[in-house]
Amino acid sequence: EKGGYEYFMLKEIAEQPQAIADTLLGRLSDRGEIILDEVRLTDQDLRDVDKVFIVACGTSYHAGMVAKYAIEHWVRIPCEVELASEFRYRDPILDRSTLVIVISQSGETMDTLMALRHAKEQKARVLAICNTNGSTIPRESDAVLYTHGGPEIAVASTKAFLTQLVACYLIGLHLAQIRGVMYADEVAAVVEKLQATPDSLRTLLAGMEDVRALARDLKTASTILFIGRHVGFPVALEGALKLKELAYMHAEGFAAGELKHGPISLIDEGTPVVCVVPSPAGRGVMRDKVVSNIQEVRARGARTIVITEEGDDSVKAFADHLIVVPRTPTLLAPLMTTVPLQILACEIAAARGHDVDQPRNLAKSVTVE
Ligand code: M6R
């Protein structure tokens, strides 16, 4: 049932290109328009939305963080992201024109379910992004967009994360389209790039041998730090979460710009720092900033593991280890840059002799608060 793979996690990582393609399937018209037929909110309801709140836990929360960048960029309405366990005990300001997007692979996460109920009590519209048909969260939501990732067995979320990203992108584009913020040809151009991601991901997955070797090297590190900016920031958080969860190692993700506000003092001779470099296309300034952050940590002794886009050769000089991913538009880049981090965590955990699919103290679905 593991399809020849040693762990479910590796199988699920390998299934990601197909999972993305399946999540996109049937959601695009011939003219490249986005059809969200499971969304039982009228176009008028969606036009009336003046604020989006995304609420989730763990990896699903990281998908929400990426979605915020996409939604604010494309739709031009305010979007906040919050951990479900925090949202629930606050007094967030919500009303009929607030769209609350809850993201959950299992659809049974108690914190997220409670946040959903909290939102509904205040009359907000709730849209669920979920991978499990008929689970509690989609049943209690006003509308659902199912991810078609297929069953995820490993406790660590991988293909669910990438398909959640795809669902978020679709919702963002749909909102932009019906609110008239993006022209049809602009939406179609993004959709075309989205449709190309499964193939790019297949190429990426075929070239991960180096990451495996690197994992064996890093298995005795006392900490691994991850830095990124913009959508690379949630990717850094996700890379650190995977490592904590599976390898039981100390790991932390930071917004690269925050380094000098504290975390840079953690850097010691040989401290591994994984750096997620934004694409030079479109967001060149941001990329340059990350490159100078890499130089800063390196000057303090860090061992840099740099994830960069194909063709961006100038970062080579600052990388002790370079991981190259296929080109993708900035907002879609997490579909690529997350994957080496999943493999890194999985392989480090395996090299340390841990049960990759069933890490200690964790359950696949957290049904208690
Ligand atoms: O089923 P959910 O998406 O609601 O689960 C949320 C988190 O518990 C989950 O993403 C968790 O962080 C994963 N084990 C991370 O790999």
From TrEMBL:
Residue window of the full protein shown: 271 to 639 of 639
Keyword annotations: Aminotransferase, Cytoplasm, Glutamine amidotransferase, Repeat, Transferase
Complexes and interactors: Homodimer.
Biological role stated in the UniProt entry: Catalyzes the first step in hexosamine metabolism, converting fructose-6P into glucosamine-6P using glutamine as a nitrogen source.
Gene Ontology molecular function terms on file: carbohydrate derivative binding; glutamine-fructose-6-phosphate transaminase (isomerizing) activity
Protein name per its UniProtKB record: Glutamine--fructose-6-phosphate aminotransferase [isomerizing]
Compartment annotation: Cytoplasm
EC number of the protein: 2.6.1.16
Domain of life: Bacteria
Residues forming the catalytic site: 364 (for fru-6p isomerization activity)
Record gene name: glmS
Any Gene Ontology biological process: UDP-N-acetylglucosamine metabolic process
Domain SIS: 42-181, 214-359
Catalytic activity, reaction form: D-fructose 6-phosphate + L-glutamine = D-glucosamine 6-phosphate + L-glutamate
Gene Ontology cellular-component annotations: cytosol
Chief location category: cytoplasm
